[in-house]
Each structure stands twice: as C-alpha cells, then as structure tokens.
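Researcher: Quick one. two chains, 587 residues in total.
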Amino acid sequence: MRPSRRTVVLLIAAAVSLLLAWSLDSAPALFLAGSMSGFVAVRAFLFLHAAGTVASGVRVERTATPFILRQGSPVNVTCTVHLLLPHGIRAEVSDVPPPGAPLTKGSSSAEITLAGSHDMKLAYGLSCISCGRLSFGGVDIVLHDPFFSLLLPFRGGAFSHPTLLVDPVGRFRAGEGSGIIGDKDSEARKLLRGYGIRSFRGYMPGDDPRTIDWKLTAKHGKLFVREYAGMIGKSPLLVADLPDSAMPCPASLRDAVIGSALDAVREMCRMPRGCSLMVICGPNLLSFLPNERSSARLERALREYSSPQQVLRCYRTLDPAVAEAFRQRLGETEGNGDGFPRKLREIYSAFIPAMEPLPFEVQCARALARQGDTALHVLSTGWGDASHLAILGLQARRRGVDARIGIPDSAISPDLVRRLKGWGYTVVRVMA
Amino acid sequence: MVMAVLAISLVAAGALFGTPLFPVALVAGALLAGSGLVVVFFHPEETALFLFAQPPVFLSWYASPLLAVALEALITIAFLVSAGDTGVRRGVVSAILLVSVSGLFALFIAGHRHVLLPLVLLLIVCVIVMLALLGTASHLIHRVTGGSHEAPGRQ
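Model:
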C-alpha cells in the first residue's frame, strides 16, 4: 500500500505536531497530531476494506488465438476483466503477458474511474519470442483513492489461462537430395522403376524383355535395354536426444533440438510410411513411436518430454566388441616384456564374457532392426556425455544403417565432429 | 475549502474574544485566510488549506477542547469533500469515525496535566494500528496471489 503525496504531507505534519507537543508540553498540539494520525489510519482502513471488496469480485476471461504456435508468431489476446468498483476508487487494470512475449499491437492496460460494475475488455497482440509452455502472468489491478494506492496482483489459477504452446524454431535437413528424408537418385536396378531413364546398356540374359528399347535396337542392330532411374526413399528413424534438465545445458541448444525435431516430424509424418520417432535423454528411452502418421502424437511426444531427467547414465560405456578389439590389440603388444598389457589383457579376458548389453543398446538394436532399409537421423545438443551417441552410431554401423547427426551450431567443435565420425556417423550437420 | 478555513479562523477568534490570545488568533486567522486565498488562486491544493486550518484549531483549544474537536471535524469533512471523496457511505463512515476518535482523544488529553502519558499511549496505538494495517494489506495480497509468489512464465 502506497500513500499518496497528500498523505505523506499529513503524516509529516502529524509528526511535527507530535514533536511540538513533546517539547512544549502542549495539549492542543498533541490533539492535532492525534487527529491527523487518526484521520490517516481511518482512511487506510476504509481503503483496505474497499480494496477487499474489489478483490473478491474480480473475474478474468482470456482467450488467445492461436495458442499453439511457432516461435516469433503473433498471438491475438482478448482479456475481459469483470470488477465491481466502489465509489471514490479508481482502478488501473493491466493484463500481464507471458515473459518473452512483447506487445506488438493494442494496449494491455486501461483505467476505470466510474463506480459500479464493469466488464473491461483488453484486446492486444503479442509476438512470442520465447518458446515452451508460456503462461500469462495474471492481471494487475492498481486501486487509487485520494490518500492511498494499492497493487493487487492476481496470479495463478484462472488468472494465468490459457497456456501458450510455443514451439522453438529449428531447421534440419536430414539428407541430401530433395525431401526431408533424403530422397536421392538411386542406381538400384531391381528395386524400383521410375519414369526417368538413367542409361542404356546391352541386353544380358535374364533382363526383363519389356525393358528392351526397340528404337535403339533397330538403329544399331543389337539388343539394348533401358535402365531406369527412380527415387528411393529410406524409411527414417528420427532420434531426438534431449538434454538432462538437471544439468545446466543452455536453453538455446535444447530449443534448437526440439525446434528441429518438430520441424522434421511435421514433414516426415506426411511420407507414405510415416515417421518413426525415438525420444531419448542420454541412454534413457523416453518414447518410441514407429511409423507414426499423426503429427499431433509426434509433437505431443516431443513436448511431453521437453524437460526430462536423466535417470540412467553411461559414462565411458565400453562396447563388448570394442573391448574384444582392445584385448586382441593388447595380445599383439604383449611380447615387449611389459607386464601391464598382459595384466590388462587378463582383466579384459575376465570381464568380457560377463559383459551384458545395456538396456539402451537393446532398445537401439530393436528400433534399427525393424526394417532393413532404415536411415538414422539423430538430433542432439552434443552437450555433456556422448556415450549414448556412440552406442547409437555403433548399432547403426553394425546394421549397415546410414547414420547422420545434427548438432547446434554453438555446440559443434572439430573434436566432436572427429569423435562422431569415429562412432559411425557419416554426416554431421549443423542445426540452424 | 477556503471558506471552511475562513470560518474556522473567525470562530476561533470569536471564541477567544476577551482573552490574551484574541489578538494572536485574529492575526493568525487573517494571515492564514489570506494565504489560503493565494493558494486557491495560484495553485489549488486541499492539503495545504487543510494544514492552514490547524493553527486556528490549535488556538481554539484554549477556549474549549470540544470546540477544537468540532472545528477539526469540520475542516476534515471539508477536506474530504474537496479531495473528491464524496461517496455517501464512505464519507459518513469517515466523519463519524473521525469525530468519535478525535472527541475521545480530546477528552483523554484534557484529563491530564502533562502530555507525556497521552503521547506515549498515542505512539503505542500508532504502532498497533500500523501493524494491523500491514497485516490486513498482506492478507489481502496473499489472497489475490493465490498463496504463490513465483514468477510466471515458461514451464
């Protein structure tokens, strides 16, 4: 509660009178001090009573269109505030937009000076710069009377609805050629037959007679067959690797991954075989949607786990095959007389038979083994431990799956690229 | 408001007629009424006029404490009306409360030879009232925030 200028003057006058009364032993000065203080106190109690009456009658109805949007998109907000204003009180009503969503048009505040019941309508536009689930701050009502003013911050519950779902902006081109899934010209002869002719060649026993080009055959007096070129589309598995919310990963990296993943699934779900999405947080599988065509389900899976917590960790996980390679390499160098390689080889020999694959390895293997013609696209922040990326890359390489990875621009480094290439990722892309 | 200041000055001077304070009340009343006119003419401010009326009230105490109470109530009601707080219910409640509080306080002071005890009691009452006001305001704000003060935003 803030006193107005005239209240401050009255309080100063009361204090001066009190000092005079004390120093001069003056009864009328004390009376004046008491009167002025009492006046201010009575006004304060009356003002608070009026403020309580206003607070108990406030209702807010707010609509935001659209409430699911991309980062930077405009939102039209209409907020209706119902309040009952007593006589002698003036109110300033402000709708508090979500943080990171500046006002682009209209005004989010207004003033009421007349007593009575009011339905105040505030219409304004926002531009959502932040992303995620953005809730409105509530409604601020500042009440004024001639002696005091009070800010009533209505927060939470119905005052913060609706929540805006703002998807981050991200772009990820998963493959070469046209299309998000990396369609490209293929030389596969028996898999498909497109409309374009790639080349001609001489007839070989076993070729389909329908492929014989009779014009060329007649011209050269020798059987020629047509070789068709077509588009081959790999059925992709998109892996969104979300950062652990308990770790201080920059929000921009997380937004880049989620934005790129949302961008990718929206395009991929329109493909004939839909989109296979795997949402992970380190070596923790959060969600797996195989051949999903519903973009709503795919987007919900990404949004639901937008701030996951990493339960399992696999720092420096050693693959059994890699461990066996180490053991064999140590066997080759054992002859130099040093006892340490021999001891290390014994240790490897002892624990390699007991090594069991991690649950995440099994999950990756099953996801990649669904069909033979799968491409793996991983979107990761590249931040923190990357053992799970190594597991994914190695599993893909074992199954002959083309593995690609997208890393945000700010997180990429030559060392990381070198390591990712070593783990089997053929292409390392930069996410915008 | 300036008329109320003028009336209070006249009443206070009239009440002190025949006492040694009469010339003081007359001069003070004339000066304050003139100052009130100057204020109204150049920069109308109710608070200044309200404060201008306090010296005549102060002097009227020596004629009768009840007169001082009545004049203080009169200038306070004039202050409320001129400040724009003309609501019927709030105005009546304010006036009744103020007259009651100042009357009781005047009676209490008039019964004491020195002001020390009433002054200490006034200070204690002021502290209690201030705490009650803060508690009421805090309770009100806690009620409207729904008991949570965390910053809204990204969830």
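Chain B touches chain A through 58 residues (CB under 8 Å).
Researcher: Thanks, that's what I needed.
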